[in-house]
Amino acid sequence: MTDPAVLDQGEKRSDRALVVNEIFGPTVQGEGPSAGRRCGFLRLGGCNLSCHWCDTPYTWDWRGVSDAGAAFDPHKELTARSIEDVLAELLAMRVPLVVVSGGEPMAQQDRLIPLLRELSVRGIAVEIETNGTVIPSDAVLGLGVRFNVSPKLNHSGDPEHRRIKPVALRKLGETPGVAFKFVCQSLADLAEVAALRDDIGLENIWIMPEGKTQQQIGDNMRTIADETVRRGWNLTTRLHILAWGDKRGV
Ligand code: SF4
């Protein structure tokens, strides 16, 4: 979990600055309903959870608590970037879609609004990848972004009261085109997804195998694929891992 004070470290600061981990592209969206679509990636720093298998611990893990086993340095990983800088870098990619990810990007939702507005007026679609713990503001909801919501299951290691926020999930569930994407390793995980769906009323469910290697993704995919289809849900791979392996910046 990121100490909020860490988010205010960086090279230059302003109220409008975004705390950025990395910007990269053109690439393709690797997961979910838009997998394979050409896009640019904006990865913001900081997360309010601490999933032990997190694939981006360099955005939040300053103490070495994740499976990566390394304590990352926020002074190296986080940079305060103005909206103008970020927008210019994304526009230079000439992509039809920008994916805003993290960490947990919705922790910076107010700072994101000017960027989302600039992208919207240029006809560039935006998807926000969120863990579903932050209630979206009406201002963000008015900007036409599509949410890929990935609530974390028991195997992430965080207690339920931190990772499952019904009010936020229900509000996100009302947004156009929303997809709920669950990282799964086992059939028990799928049963947990079903219980959440029934409790909260989730629709458009996507199941994604956990894994940072082709081998792990393949093994977990084979475990969960039949049951995912039987339950009437969608299945997604992690295209960027299959194409480029566990590399940053792709
Ligand atoms: Fe990592 Fe996402 Fe979990 Fe945050 S919510 S710790 S970014 S997997």
Order of the strands making up the biggest sheet: 3-1-2-4-5-6-7-8-9
Distance between the termini: 24 Å
| Number of DSSP-assigned strands | 9
CATH superfamily: Aldolase class I
- CATH architecture, by name, is Alpha-Beta Barrel
CATH C-level label: Alpha Beta
What ions, cofactors and ligands are bound?
iron/sulfur cluster
Uncertain parts: 8-13
Helicity range = 25-40%
Class from helix and strand fractions:
alpha/beta
Task: Explain this structure.
The chain has 250 residues and is α/β, with parallel strands linked by helices. It has one domain (4-244): Alpha-Beta Barrel (TIM Barrel), CATH 3.20.20. It is built from nine helices and nine strands. It has helices at residues 74-77, 83-91, 109-121, 138-141, 160-163, 166-173, 187-201, 214-230, 239-244, and strands spanning 18-28, 38-44, 79-81, 97-101, 125-130, 146-149, 179-184, 205-209, 234-235. Strands 3-1-2-4-5-6-7-8-9 form a nine-stranded mixed sheet. Residues 8-13 have low confidence and may be disordered. The chain binds iron/sulfur cluster. Iron/sulfur cluster binds at residues 47, 49-51, 54, 56, 102-104, 131, 152.
